[in-house]
């Protein structure tokens, strides 16, 4: 799941489409955008490909220079137009895109239904946007004040990006254990969970830490902790940005990735498999000494290796289990990162503690980061 937001003076529809095209090589099953023009929130979303949404937008144009977008990989609810993001609150004043999983979603949904809230999707994200509305209404607070309060109610890691028809000049973003970047432009700002979505001219960004939220306008931004302590952030330079990803003549990205595997394997082994010097694999960090013991020795002498991952990385972990057990004779268990926190299985002989191996294609998968922590 990836989200993106823009606030500035450009046509938000075009900015969002450009961002989604850059992200389309990622795994997703539905896509959507929301654009705010004065006091009107316009939503367009589709199950399927980015190109399907772009065709839909061409048929039903939108105007405005502030907007949010999302690529969804189904977790709560099947792939469908209704389950795609953004989601609107019952009063129609809030639109939200969300990365992550709310573990106590079912309980909150029941509480909101008792209060008269209606739901059109199966997602925890729609529950979240209506919980924000409920906190604003019952506590008589602004959106900026409601978001930290909501994060104290929900359980789980995640990030949200919200726009409001009552404050059409602003975007609101908050995160817990879910990497989020604020891209800095000239009188315009971008928010995303993946810097690849930013335009080429955006080379500086600010990284939100867990437990922080920002209010972003074209005139500037404010960042605070959930306890309302102002935060001054260092600006970091974005390096190794990639240009727009395309299929390079292949029918689709899956075929492209399959055909690239031989070169990818060669690149992965380059500098790590020293045949002439030692004939051994040399992976950075394995020779380091921690608490007086080499990392490689700690791995080889462990009672077991626990691999945590999500999605296709989980499949890679299963292959790793087979290879490690057959070659190194070390027991390996593979766990879904999203379920690792509630794992009840014994870890074996704790005099020889297990080793945790986390796999993530991006290095930022929310459930994997939470499992490591």
Give the gist of this structure.
Helices cover 29% and strands 28% of the residues. It contains eleven helices and 21 strands.
Question: Any overview of this molecule?
Answer:
There is one protein chain. The strands form five sheets. This protein has an eight-stranded antiparallel sheet with strand order 3-2-4-1-10-9-11-14, covered by helices on one side. A six-stranded antiparallel sheet has the order 5-6-7-8-12-13, covered by helices on one side. The protein is built from eleven helices and 21 strands. It is globular and about 65 Å long. It has helices spanning 12-23, 50-59, 105-114, 124-139, 143-153, 253-259, 261-269, 295-300, 312-328, 337-340, 366-372, and strands at residues 2-7, 30-37, 40-47, 66-72, 87-88, 94-100, 158-164, 167-176, 180-184, 189-192, 204-208, 212-217, 220-225, 236-237, 273-274, 280-281, 289-290, 293-294, 305-309, 332-336, 355-358. It has 373 residues and is an alpha+beta fold.
Provide the helix percentage.
25-40%
Structural category is alpha+beta
Q: What is the general shape?
A: globular
Fraction in beta strands: 25-35%
By DSSP, the count of extended strands is 21
Low-confidence stretches: none
Mean pLDDT: 86
Note the main sheet. Answer: 8 strands, antiparallel
